[in-house]
């Protein structure tokens, strides 16, 4: 079972998130709320009234006890890569008006861009060097039509998802 874990929190006491089970599985009732949906869809999710909207039912008691009446789950993204989800809570129902939804939805993209920039900077400043040698005679024959050696040099490496890397190479 795939569940969401909290990384950091500001504002109210931690116990709300400690007491809340959140899944990313669509078939799990704990995955049908704003956070699980934001993880799956990469789209901001808003609950305008935590006490009346059915997808928020698993967390209604904890939210009521803490005075949370509206909830937002904002995916932190860059180029389709999900880094995290930012959750915001409001004391009033219908707190997330259209201009606020647009602004905090954009905030997720800005934060994602900043995280990506920091990761790229770390990668560029990393002192380690890795050399990989690959041999594929059929690939080489396709490139040059013979069995002669072919030298491939990586010009640039770009992560395109959590488990995929795109290499730009010269032959």
Topology:
Blueprint: H1 15-18, H2 34-41, E1 45-47, H3 60-66, E2 70-78, E3 81-90, H4 98-125, H5 137-144, E4 153-161, E5 164-170
Antiparallel strand pairs: 1-2, 2-3, 4-5
Task: Trace the largest sheet across and list its strands.
Answer: 1-2-3
Question: What amount of the residues lies in strands?
Answer: 15-25%
> What radius of gyration results from the CA coordinates?
23 Å
Q: Determine the structural class based on helices, strands and strand pairing.
A: alpha+beta
- H-E order: HHEHEEHHEE
What spatial form do the alpha-carbon principal axes imply?
A: elongated
Secondary structure: helix percent: 25-40%
End-to-end distance: 45 Å
Oligomer: single chain
Number of strand segments: 5
Mean pLDDT: 80
Largest sheet descriptor: 3 strands, antiparallel
Q: Report the uncertain regions.
A: none
Q: How many individual helices?
A: 5
Can you put this structure into words, describing what you see?
The chain has 171 residues and is α+β, with helices and mostly antiparallel strands. The chain contains five helices and five strands. The model has no long low-confidence stretch (mean pLDDT 80).
């Amino acid at each position: 079972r795939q569940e969401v874990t909290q990384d950091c929190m500001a504002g109210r006491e931690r116990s709300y998130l400690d007491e809340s089970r959140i899944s990313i599985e669509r078939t799990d009732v704990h995955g049908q709320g704003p956070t699980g949906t934001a993880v799956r869809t990469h789209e901001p999710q808003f609950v305008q009234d935590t006490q009346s909207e059915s997808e928020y039912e698993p967390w209604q008691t904890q939210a009521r006890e803490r005075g949370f009446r509206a909830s937002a789950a904002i995916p932190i993204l860059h180029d389709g890569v999900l880094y995290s989800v930012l959750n915001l809570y409001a004391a009033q129902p219908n707190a997330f008006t259209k201009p606020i939804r647009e602004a905090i939805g954009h905030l997720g993209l800005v934060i994602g861009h900043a995280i990506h920039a920091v990761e790229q900077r770390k990668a560029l400043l990393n002192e380690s060097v890795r050399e990989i040698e690959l041999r594929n005679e059929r690939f080489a024959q396709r490139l040059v039509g013979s069995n002669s050696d072919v030298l491939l040099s990586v010009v640039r490496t770009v992560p395109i998802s959590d488990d995929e890397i795109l290499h730009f190479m010269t032959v």
